[in-house]
Design goal:
9-stranded mixed beta sheet, 29% helix, 21% strand
Length: 444
């Protein structure tokens, strides 16, 4: 087997300056112990990213971990220990966050189609805020809270104009997410009639996975101006700037520069809110930024062939575990950060990396320079895979097993999700399985 190159360690630094704890030798050992494909996460990298956020954001800002970024209970628990709250979008995520040690009073709930059962669950446990997407939703929440005879707190999610900062995939303006400013103002006008629901502030989610600091500054400026207009006669206790801070994933990505964002958040536009007699709690939702650079996806070469003048390496892992490399959730496919066999000073050649699926989309990377001696059994490592990896992928497609997940914390490593055989997944779906009788099951 050829030696893995030092660029593997360089990749960790490129992901935001984190310590390169996952050397090629250590990853090879993990692959031997747990098998491939598998995911490996570095706890130190996550803590360092959280520390950079704390240093950049205004003092006292509340951080919420979006559970969807990586819902492994051990990862959610790590952020609970770091003082993060949680942003959830389903009853299962709510239960997971609370089981991981995040109190209900530090949880916010987002989503454009919350059901009555969702809203009832949030009211019953008393989460910090339900982030409201429409007038109809807050009216349903009022009826549910009244029926349960429990208070509820709501935050109005604003959908800002299209030109207020770029979003990937044209994701801004007139959408299923949030409400326009006029609707928010109308809701505030009848807020006294919504008891036992109390409106406590505003929310906006500016973008997804952006590495452009100027976009965040522009978007935050538009948001804070909307907040100031809507706050006349209504003192908000909570202003949630959302998230979307990106982390390097593609080979040509650079880390997000937090300095311009920090300068804006400490600058006159945000401070003016406090100067007008308002001093709301500021909130930020951070998932990809803190987990993405911490993850690696390990896969081994199964077969190597040359056809039509190109070399292909088929791997035991693919987009059923790592859909993100196909361009899904990123809106644009570009060269990903990959490390594999390439002895220093040795010859290399461009290689197409494909997975085991009978699908033409199962192409993980193109024209990756790897050793001319590449052979079955060689380890290939994909960087930046700590967010929107395993759980955002079609795990059941074509009946492959679910990959294990390993958390590295200094000298220790811990299996935090075992390999799940596809036969087990099928068994869970049987109408005779004990889980089928659990509360909440939709009858056939």
């Amino acid at each position: 087997m050829a030696e893995l190159p030092d660029i593997l360690n360089a990749g960790a630094g490129a992901a935001g300056g984190e310590a390169a704890n996952l050397s090629h030798a250590r990853l090879e050992g993990i692959a031997e112990r747990y098998g491939t494909p598998c995911f490996v996460y570095d706890a130190a990298v996550m803590r360092q990213a959280a520390g950079r956020l704390r240093a950049a954001l205004p003092e006292g800002a509340a951080l919420f971990y979006p559970v969807k970024a990586n819902p492994n209970p051990a990862i959610v628990g790590l952020f609970a220990d770091l003082g993060f709250g949680a942003e959830v979008a389903s009853r299962s995520e709510l239960a997971l966050a609370m089981a991981a040690g995040i109190p209900a009073k530090r949880i916010v709930w987002s989503g454009p189609a919350k059901t009555d059962d969702d809203l009832a669950a949030a009211v019953k446990v008393g989460i910090y805020a339900i982030q409201i997407e429409s007038r109809g939703e807050i009216e349903r929440l009022e009826a549910i809270a009244a029926r349960l005879e429990r208070p509820a707190t709501a935050v109005l999610r604003l959908d800002l104009p299209q030109d207020a900062g770029a979003r990937r995939g044209d994701w801004a303006g007139a959408s299923s997410f949030g409400m326009d400013e006029a609707t928010a103002a109308a809701i505030l006008g009848v807020r006294d009639r919504l008891a036992p629901v109390e409106i406590v502030g505003f929310h906006n989610h500016p973008t997804s996975g952006s590495l452009n600091a100027a976009d965040f500054v522009r978007r935050f400026a538009t948001f804070i101006e909307a907040v100031r207009r809507l706050s006349k006669g209504f003192p908000p206790r909570f202003v949630n700037f959302g998230g979307g801070f990106g982390a390097p994933f593609y080979a040509d990505d650079s880390a997000l520069d937090l300095d311009p964002i920090a300068a804006f958040l400490r600058g006159p536009e945000v401070q003016a809110v406090a100067g007008e007699g308002l001093s709301p709690q500021l909130g930020f939702e951070m998932g990809r930024y803190v987990t993405g650079p911490a993850g690696r996806y390990l896969s081994r070469v199964v077969a190597v062939k040359r056809t039509a003048g190109r070399r292909f390496a088929a791997l035991d892992g693919g987009i059923h575990h790592l859909m993100i490399v196909s361009g899904t959730l990123r809106f644009l496919r570009r060269p990903v950060a990959v490390a594999g066999p390439l002895t220093k000073g040795g010859e290399s050649e461009p290689t197409e990396l494909t997975g085991p699926l009978c699908a033409p989309t199962d192409r993980l990377a193109s024209a990756v320079l790897l050793s001319t001696a590449l052979a079955p059994g060689d380890l290939i490592v994909f960087s930046g895979c700590g967010a929107y990896g395993k759980h955002a992928s079609p795990l059941n497609f074509l009946g492959h097993d679910w990959p294990p997940e390993i958390l590295v914390d200094g000298d220790e490593e811990r299996l935090i999700a075992r390999r799940v055989r596809f036969e087990e997944v099928l068994a869970l779906q049987s109408p005779d399985h004990p889980a089928a009788a659990e509360p909440g099951r939709v009858p056939p």
